[in-house]
Amino acid sequence: MAGIYDLMEWPMERLLFRRLRCRAVEYAEGRTLEVGVGTGKNLEFYPSGMELSAIDFSPGMLEVAARKAEQPGMPLVELREMDLEDMDYADGSFSTVISTFVFCTVPHPMKGLMEIRRVLEPGGKAVFLEHMRSGNPILNIFLCAMSRFTRPILGDSMVRRTLSSIRNAGFEVSSVEDNLFGIVKLITAGRGPD
Q: Where in 19-141 does DSSP place strands (E)?
């Protein structure tokens, strides 16, 4: 899917996601890790001098991201093939961790969230831009119907309770911004106490 992934998301990317990705990346400071970098859609929004690492479990997605990273004006980024659920970074390695539209596909979300919390330094910040179950039951009927198609094809669940999972993983949520009728949320969170 890596070769056509950007094309598949093009309409929503142009209408909403691009603006929200830019907003999410604005929170990045210090040594930053982007998990689930995919095809590198966020790379253009990072400042050029940032110390940036990015991971994805898909070699195909990383190849597309690497081509984007070579374009003029892109930040210097260390791209690595790695599973979010089992990262080989040391505890407290990063000041900021960015995740955009990742936890709809992570097989074991709580495990991935705990790994993000582990690699985040005390006082660090996690930023999540994710789509999830809405507070509106009527919208959830539509999302459940979509998940019947997206889950087998893309592994993408439209009805996860990601905000609750973030809290349950021990993060201290500092802000939640609702977009697209509360389906897409921009969440900032601290590491929380051990």
A: 32-35, 52-56, 77-81, 94-100, 120-131
CA proximity to 132, closest of 153, 98, 101, 106: 101
If residue 66 lies in a helix (H) or strand (E), which one and from where to where?
helix 59-69
- The number of helix segments (H) and strand segments (E) in the chain equals 7, 7
Tokens of 13: 């990317």
Q: Where are the beta strands (DSSP E) in 65-168?
A: 77-81, 94-100, 120-131
Q: Phi/psi class of residue 73: alpha, beta or left (left: φ > 0; alpha: ψ in -120 to 50)?
A: left
Cβ atoms of residues 56 and 106 within 8 Å: no
Domain of residue 178: give its range.
5-190
pLDDT band (50, 70, 90) for residue 49: confident
Q: Using one digit for the tens of pLDDT, what is the confidence trace for 91-105? A: 999 999 999 989 878
**Element (H or E) spanning 186, and its range?**
strand 184-190
- Compute, in degrees rounded to 10, the torsion defined by CA atoms 22, 32, 116, 144: 20
Q: What is the pLDDT of residue 20?
A: 93
- pTM, 2 dp: 0.85
**CATH code, 169:** 3.40.50.150
- Give the separation between CA 128 and CA 176, rounded to whole angstroms: 9
